[in-house]
Design a protein that fits this description.
By secondary structure, the chain is α/β, with parallel strands linked by helices. The chain is built from 17 helices and 7 strands.
Length: 447
């Protein structure tokens, strides 16, 4: 058995064992026929049962994560090109930025160009779309697009959506319908594997949009936020991979980075969906899905930095949640295309209830069906394993050696604190207005 397949088998065995351990820990003796209403009162009983049921809310994303990590190799081998580069269509690698951190762009542009050169890619351009001039050194493969401060879209789109729509103005756009666009955030770095995965995807030309995995531990500034982001890596390989491979739709979500789009498809979907479509990248994906466009997963991993501070981590999650709430409730997207996305959003919002249940279930027990307890144990085990798996995938054994074991354990140790921070972000998302698109400062190169 090959090394990569062996890792996947071991990973599946460990996941199944963890699920069995969680399920075996359930105490059947908790089921009682005592008068609960007489003990807690009608209102108290209703509250306790709502809390008791809350751990079931993330069932959909749990099933998707489980299937993504089990049905597809969780430790894929390095990506290899499936055809000659001469068959590859033209690529536009497009980076959108406010231009507030020019040093970050000036550092990453050469690094991404070097990856393209190393893979042998020649038929491409790297575009930097910015509100403020960055003054990138002249290069035939680089194009700096400065958005006029007076520019407005027809429907009043804002922030990143406004910038991306500007690129499609007749006076700006230089792409043909058969070209492809690779969307990156300002701190996103290509890797050889991700670029090869993209080239395989666009050369096949079977789907309109694609997305892959992002690793957040290539360069570490804040250990805590990097450990917290391990869960995001697992979601990429779990529920996102499963939804794309199994359904070819962005059922539960979509990211704005490591996004690959066929030019004609992106232009027809458009980014000009008004202010309500300007916060969450998921709005574009759900709109595209409702128009009949198809999606798939792209092999390979890109690199990004985690937020540099805990406060930025909270603000980032707050922005995501507010955007997801707006998108999930947007009636301009047919309900059947946003139903599961909406359930995923409110499952995330239910986290405070689930945290409360950890305490009330122990000190204020109520009779509860054993089969539901088993289901909750399954959800809990998969949730814990996502942090473990994400940490394993984030840290290279070659770079960290045995210290990697400590990092995996640390991911679990800090989990209670991460949950508290997520709860803070949820309350901020619910009770504060979304007045701006908060840009996370990931510029660690100030000069």
């Amino acid at each position: 058995m090959g090394g990569y397949k062996g890792k996947h088998v071991f990973h599946c065995i460990f996941l199944f064992l963890l699920i069995l351990i969680f399920m075996s820990a359930i105490n059947k003796g908790q089921q009682s026929s005592r008068n609960i209403i007489g003990t807690y009162g009608l209102l108290g009983t209703l509250i306790l049962y709502c809390l008791r049921l809350s751990p079931l809310f993330p069932i959909i994303q749990t099933i998707f994560n489980f299937c993504g990590l089990v049905f597809y190799n969780a430790f894929p081998k390095n990506v290899e090109l499936k055809s000659s580069l001469t068959r590859a269509p033209f690529l536009c690698i497009r980076v959108v930025t406010r231009g507030l951190f020019p040093n970050l762009i000036l550092r990453n542009v050469p690094r991404n160009l070097e990856i393209c050169k190393h893979v042998g890619l020649e038929n491409f351009v790297l575009e930097v779309v910015t509100d403020y001039p960055i003054f990138i050194p002249k290069n035939e493969k680089v194009r700096e697009i400065i958005i006029p401060s007076s520019y407005e879209t027809k429907n009043g789109s804002l922030f990143k959506a406004r910038a991306l729509h500007y690129c499609w103005e007749d006076s700006v756009n230089k792409l043909s319908d058969s070209d492809w666009i690779v969307h990156l955030d300002e701190e996103t770095l290509l890797t050889e594997d991700s670029l090869k995965g993209i080239l395989n995807f666009v050369t096949e030309d079977k789907y309109d949009f694609g997305q892959g995995t992002i690793i957040y531990a290539s360069e570490i500034v804040n250990w805590f936020t990097t450990l917290a982001d391990a869960y995001r890596v697992a979601q990429d390989m779990g529920m996102f991979r499963f939804q794309f491979y199994a359904f070819n739709k962005p059922i539960l979500g979509w990211k704005g980075s490591f996004m690959v789009a066929k030019a004609i498809s992106e232009r027809k979907v458009s980014y000009d969906h008004g202010p309500e479509g300007s916060i969450s990248d998921g709005h574009f994906a759900l709109k595209a899905s409702s128009m009949g466009y198809t999606f798939n997963f792209i092999e390979g991993e890109m690199w990004e930095l985690s937020p540099l501070t805990v406060f930025d981590l909270i603000r980032q999650r707050k922005r995501w949640l507010q955007g997801m709430i707006i998108t999930g409730n947007c009636e301009k997207i047919p309900f059947k295309y946003r139903l599961l996305f909406l359930l995923h959003t409110y499952a995330w919002l239910s986290l405070p209830l689930r945290v409360c249940n950890y305490f009330t279930a122990e000190y204020y027990p109520v009779p509860f069906p054993y089969v539901l307890d088993l289901l909750i144990a399954f959800i809990g085990a998969v949730g814990i394993y996502l942090h473990i798996y994400g940490s394993i995938r984030s840290y290279s054994t070659k770079q960290y050696g045995y210290f990697k074991i400590i990092l995996v354990l640390a991911t679990i140790v800090i989990l209670p604190v991460v949950l508290i921070l997520e709860v803070v972000a949820i309350f901020l998302a619910i009770f504060t207005e979304n007045k701006e698109f908060y840009v996370i400062d990931k510029n660690i190169w100030k000069t």
